[in-house]
Amino acid sequence: MSETKTARTALVTGANKGIGYEIAAGLGALGYRVGVGARDEARRESAVEKLRAGGVDAFGVPLDVTGDESVTAAAELVERRAGRLDVLVNNAGISGDMGPGWIQDPTTLDVDLVRTVVETNVLGVIRVTNAMLPLLRRSTAPRIVNISSAVASLTRQADPDIDIGPVMAAYSPSKTFLNAVTVQYARQLADTNILINAACPGLVATDFTGFHGPRTPEQGAATPIRLATLPDDGPTGSFFEDDGVVPW
């Protein structure tokens, strides 16, 4: 097998900007070849060029996590380029339309909005993960990181003494759903060497948040990168932020 095929390879979905881009850059700096998964061709290739200019071995992966054909084609592309996958970071996600005050009021919520958010934030993760699992199984140290959020924590949401932010009746439950799915994967894969965890990047100033938040994308990428590079005896089926474990 050529040197190109022996390097460690990571795929980051939604990697053309924000936290996803910084995860790709951080893994690239650690020596990973990085697949930049993104729907928009121009933004995807711009991100690849920028990463390469910074010394990262990056390649573009056309990827719409809501489309079966797109995800299948992405897995085939990664197989051709690398032969296996060592790290999968499921970063692509959407908030869904927000009302005034960045609120999604459950009492007036459009169920079609919920479907749209879940399609990307949950079903998209399942779709991509299952397509990439055959490639991950070829790795000696496969890692999966699902980008979640502290607003997924039912413990924090239910505590009136914790300011968890506005009511987001589509987005927050979608991330709670994602956390639950993460645990099910960990249970199913318990007898393998695949470690899968959820990561909260914190409130990061990106276009996703309207550039509101105290954290930079680089700071938001820190925990996902740590989970993507866990040692073999690292945790699985858990939920982390910079300060440690996030309560379910």
Name some characteristics of this structure.
single chain; 248 residues; alpha/beta; 42% helix; globular
Helix content: 40-55%
Q: Please identify the structural class as seen in this structure.
A: alpha/beta
Figure out the total of helices. Answer: 8
Radius of gyration: 17 Å
Biggest sheet details? 8 strands, mixed
Uncertain runs? none
* Beta-strand content bin: 5-15%
Determine the N-to-C terminus distance. 43 Å
> Largest beta sheet: what is the strand line-up?
3-2-1-4-5-6-7-8
Number of strands: 8
Shape: globular
What is the mean pLDDT? 93
Q: Provide the succession of SSEs.
A: HEHEHEHEHEHHEHEE
Polypeptide structure, described:
The protein has 248 residues and is of the alpha/beta class. The protein has helices at 3-6, 18-29, 41-53, 68-82, 111-136, 154-157, 171-188, 217-228; strands at 9-13, 33-38, 58-62, 87-90, 143-147, 195-199, 239-241, 244-245. It has an eight-stranded mixed beta sheet, sandwiched between helices. A hairpin with a 2-residue loop joins strand 7 and strand 8. Helix 2 packs across helix 8.
Q: What is the fold's blueprint, element by element?
A:
Blueprint: H1 3-6, E1 9-13, H2 18-29, E2 33-38, H3 41-53, E3 58-62, H4 68-82, E4 87-90, H5 111-136, E5 143-147, H6 154-157, H7 171-188, E6 195-199, H8 217-228, E7 239-241, E8 244-245
Parallel strand pairs: 1-2, 1-4, 2-3, 4-5, 5-6, 6-7
Antiparallel strand pairs: 7-8
Helix pairs in contact: 2-8, 4-5, 5-7
In brief:
The protein is built from eight helices and eight strands. The chain is an alpha/beta fold and 248 residues long.
